Write the structure tokens for this entry.
Amino acid sequence: MNAKLKKAVLAAAIMSTPLAASAANLYGGGASLPAIAYVGDSFTVPSTQARFSTTISNPSFGVEANIDSIFGVFAAPGTNNASYCQTGSGTGKRVLLGAPNWDADGDCGDYSVSPLGFSAPNGQAVPDFAGSDAPLTADDINTFTSGPREAARTNLVQVPALGAFIGLPLQLAGGYAGTPNLTTDQVCGIFAGVYRSWDQVGLSSSADPIDVVYRSDDSGTVFAFTQYLASTCNGRTLGNFTIPSNFFQTNELFEDAVPVAPAVLYAEASPASGNGGIITEVEADAWSIGFANYSNIDAENQGGNTLGYAKIDNNHPASGGSISVGTGDILIDTVLGNPGASGLPTTLSLASAGGTEEECLAVVDPAIQLTQTYPIVAFTNLLTYTDDNAEPAAVEDLFEEVTAGSSSLPAGYARINSTDVGNIISSCIDIDRS
């Protein structure tokens, strides 16, 4: 039965039956880019940043989410709680889709170790939700349909939730670098390995090598950043050198987005996990530059540190303007295919990728990321299932709070105002609470 029709039938039945209120504890995880908005900045306080944040008071591990964060506002009535593990988008999708050996009850850990899951209660293999800045792909649909989650939950729900600016944190001579301006040519030259020392971009009088700090994990931040690089830098001429037209490939894994290993491409290269890991590494490495969610950079500076970051052609991520997504920019029952010849993402119908079209899977047209005022923008998505969710009413409430709630957003984020998103949340997350 079509998911929307099924929900209408179930709703009619439930309206005539009194429901006992019960508290829900939701467990999810995935992208680190939306974490500041979802759970606040308390995870940045420990000397090793926490991956796990929760609205449960005095948690036995991880940290308590800020009460003014989106999840904090969601939990404020006192009925439901939500926990989030910053695994990165790739691992978040693996847990949601049921990739082999990835379950929700795997250990989340902190930023000193790689996460194995979302730290859900022992025995809860299926998560309640996930977050990803990299939209579902044809390969992801195959993972879902060939694994255990389809049998347990039938189909997938994906809604774009927030837009966010990606900044370029940097450190020069071991101290606060301020907010120097880099031109688009200089950004392309740095990340293409054309410029290998800071004197080549005018930020040092000596040939101090540029240490490029990059994400080691599968990441939607990487997806958005490498899409920007593919669109902006491929085929670009820098002096006497032209970057090949297929040099950068849009990818969730940075090492697969560039043609050679970062250790070969750059004068110095340092891998790090998560947006928090990038920031920690840049702070530790003199003469370094990376890429991370601007709100993570801002949170670090609000905590009393002084982390520099670059403007791009004098465009500042703190005042990047609104993030604009029109109704026609939301694509329904669409997934991503492999990058085309230009390195940019392609789109496919869900049916052609082997999925069942139920108007429950939405994505922002990837091209829209490239049309915003500030040039590097990511869109983060919330994902769950169409059927047999353990706590569907609570999941629906959480998704509504993220996408259309009243909670204020930290600098660098914007909600995506879309009727399509609201319709999917209200129509596709099952309400069978029996």
In short: The two ends are 18 Å apart (CA to CA).
